[in-house]
Task: structure prediction
Amino acid sequence: MNNTRIQRFMGSLDAIENADIVIAGFPYDGTATFRAGARFASREIRAYSSQALETFSFYFGTGLDEVKFFDAGDMEVMLGNPAPMVENVKDTASIFLKNSRKLVGIGGEHLITYPLFMAAQKKHPGLSMLHLDAHADLAEEMFGERLSHGTVMYLCLQHGLQKLIQFGIRSGSKQEYLMRESDSRIIPAATIEQINEAIQEGEKIYLSLDVDFFDPGFFPGTGTPEAGGASFDDYIRILNLLKQKKVDIIGADIVELAPELDQSRASTIFAGKLLRETLICMGD
Result:
């Protein structure tokens, strides 16, 4: 990991030894199909975190000082062929997941979820996935590429994922639409109440958040914005639901922030707040 020139996210411990959760940046956007730039997200989130955010959450009544997490910095920026990236991220994630630790990956594009999921699944067989996104990401290939941000959930299903809860989906091909209707492993939740019905008390969940889940009016800084979508308050309601169900969020990622596409930096600060609330929810 490369953490010599990048400050840590606010509230991070100084060493990994006492951490229950690790943050790591995975700066890859090599299969971006509209607008690239997500590889800069983790760097920018860190840079703005201590300037624009408090460590305390009014939503959960606690702060990052109550969460034992360590920011391990970023992998080196990865370009080109996605295959070596997938192997490198999987190996790195497996190291961080040792000693009962959880991992929050910061993308980068959504393809990084695939190797993060594989590492988490090896440690927690039978885990489920809660996928918050505008796009189904169930294509078998995209522009001739099997490893792509648009195929990531298909790849996870192919690798043994048995329960995929999708919420916020409003874009995809007819084939993906039909797959969501016919594949019994996929639960297409249309409301937060349906997420509640789909999740069991104490279930082990991997949480994957693509920021185009949010309405582009709230979050314009992403490579493939999609009209419609959720608000920050919707995300807090989902986290509260997971807490009430005593769900064990064993891993998570926040992907597809492209900071330079929103010069106001409002999207970057929004993403930092998402990270804060996710860490607090996971550490509770």
